[in-house]
Amino acid sequence: MKEPSLSPLVGVPEPVTVRVPAKINLHLAVGGLRPDGYHDLVTVFQAVSLYDGVTATPARTLTLTVSGEGAPGLPADSRNLAWRAATLLAERTGVGPAVHLDLAKGIPVAGGLAGGSADAAGALVACDALWGTGLGRTELMELAAELGADVAFGLVGGTALGTGRGEHLTPVLAGGRWHWVLGVAHGGLSTPAVYQELDRLRAATDPEPDTEPAATYERSPAIDPAYGLINALRLQDVEQLGKLLANDLQPAALSLRPELRQTLRAAADLGALGAVVSGSGPTCALLARSEEHAVRLAAALAGAGVCRTVKVVTGPVGGARLVDAL
Length: 326
Ligand code: C5P
Prior knowledge:
By secondary structure, this protein is an alpha+beta fold. The protein is built from ten helices and twelve strands. The model has no long low-confidence stretch (mean pLDDT 92). Bound molecules: cytidine-5'-monophosphate. Cytidine-5'-monophosphate binds at residues 37-39, 41, 117, 148-150, 165-166, 191-192, 195.
């Protein structure tokens, strides 16, 4: 990791900026509700070329500002996961938390793209560099896992199989570039609300959840169904990947936001190889055959008028990284 550079004039560390990507879930199997309020997952994450920037500047106390997409709706205090990341790192290392964090949002807020987790991952890397804590990758990963289910993936990026709450990661070979169109909906969806809706839908089809597990799910989801998709990634079989995109949270997201069906229907009508709600939604990820196909698909989806905005992205990209400038 890059050492923080010292200003030649005053000996004060210069600000550091970290760029951190959004994620999409290509496969998301959700188990039953655990006693800690989480659900066991089997998921395949891919980091895509849509980024937030986190800049850490030396300051007297911990402060936070947010700019960019959706910034006015975001808290700039301890409710913000980036704030909690800086606090946790400071507690564990005994350094700081004398830092000003500035989040430059490029990832839509509450979109199922792990933007909040990305900011936490970015804050960990930025503060770690600024304070020169000397923590290794493993220790940062442990802190990330404490902060939230998707934060660890924000650190590593690429394509990975996630288990547990999503924080136990195994890299997945997904050579080449995959072309995606993101259909970003109006407004966001609360992740806990979508998981609760899934539990509600499952309970409704399982009248005696305490005696018999629902036929539709097990407490821990099986890993095997993810292997077909992992194989398609390894073989760079884009047609097969399109067919295997799957998300157990999709019925819950559609139940809360029925209009997302229009986006998924439009995706099929317009020739996407596959389409799926990403994570807890409401963003939908559409798979394209090539860069040129993605651009055409994005234009057609924008023309269909079912999304707030449409973005063309590629994956996999790397996780949180120090950069000279955004
Ligand atoms: O960890 P994160 O902050 O992303 O999770 C937000 C909420 O989403 C959790 O409080 C929980 O309600 C739900 N969640 C879950 N199971 C997971 C991940 C998230 O139930 N594996």
